[in-house]
């Protein structure tokens, strides 16, 4: 079985971005906004900021207290939209309950939407136009390309219908000429549906949800979820995906958890930041990819 490890693919993206940055007469600037002190959000934001700086981007994190009002956050986003020195804006989700995610997404300038989640970005993706694309799905597509896994003509089943993963990934797969089925909590005969997949993508968030009986022999399986199922003797979180361990005996290729899709999400965020900076300055916004296929 082929292990679809994310770190070497992410590192390839970073090397391409660093090469591109040496030829730009400016330094793209990423602004990350975090509201509150949710431990996972603190960790994710720190990782994104550190990696951005590591490859040579300018990055700043704006932190607001837990009780920040929606109006205050939207006013801050408006200032970032108007700031010509800011190329990419990312608001870390989840936000506290008093702040609506949809209101935040609608407030971000689509030209600076490096998370690829605004309604305009989603609409452009689905209508076949160039867009800043949702990072996790874009990372999955890059991962498949890196390991020479062809999508065209394949039967793809995505067990997720969210705006973050399932819907944008379906659009990307369709663009690459796959036949796509989206399964979800109301899907009947789930195992029958998933067994059709030559490429199976799961982002359910339930450890052990995908069992070997649900996987077509020889299928490529992309496990997006990271589920915490306890702590080890050293006190560290034990992390697993949606797939039961036995799925590895059936699949021809499988992403590890951790170390599969996760690193790709951060890589594509930084890819989008460079792309946004170039597009805002009237350049093509296409960052060269070693395979010869730009992530557009």
TrEMBL record:
MF term (GO), any: methenyltetrahydrofolate cyclohydrolase activity
One Gene Ontology biological process: methionine biosynthetic process
Annotated catalysed reactions: (6R)-5,10-methenyltetrahydrofolate + H2O = (6R)-10-formyltetrahydrofolate + H(+); (6R)-5,10-methylene-5,6,7,8-tetrahydrofolate + NADP(+) = (6R)-5,10-methenyltetrahydrofolate + NADPH
Domain of life: Bacteria
Tetrahydrofolate dehydrogenase/cyclohydrolase catalytic domain residues: 5-115
One matching Pfam family: THF_DHG_CYH
Limits of the Tetrahydrofolate dehydrogenase/cyclohydrolase NAD(P)-binding domain: 134-280
Pathways per UniProt: One-carbon metabolism; tetrahydrofolate interconversion
Keyword annotations from UniProtKB, A to Z: Amino-acid biosynthesis, Histidine biosynthesis, Hydrolase, Methionine biosynthesis, Multifunctional enzyme, NADP, One-carbon metabolism, Oxidoreductase, Purine biosynthesis
EC number: 1.5.1.5, 3.5.4.9
Binding site for NADP(+): 160-162, 226
A GO term from the CC aspect: cytosol
Known partners and oligomeric status: Homodimer.
Function: Catalyzes the oxidation of 5,10-methylenetetrahydrofolate to 5,10-methenyltetrahydrofolate and then the hydrolysis of 5,10-methenyltetrahydrofolate to 10-formyltetrahydrofolate.
Family affiliation: Belongs to the tetrahydrofolate dehydrogenase/cyclohydrolase family.
Protein name: Bifunctional protein FolD
Phylogenetic classification of the source organism: Bacteria, Thermotogati, Deinococcota, Deinococci, Thermales
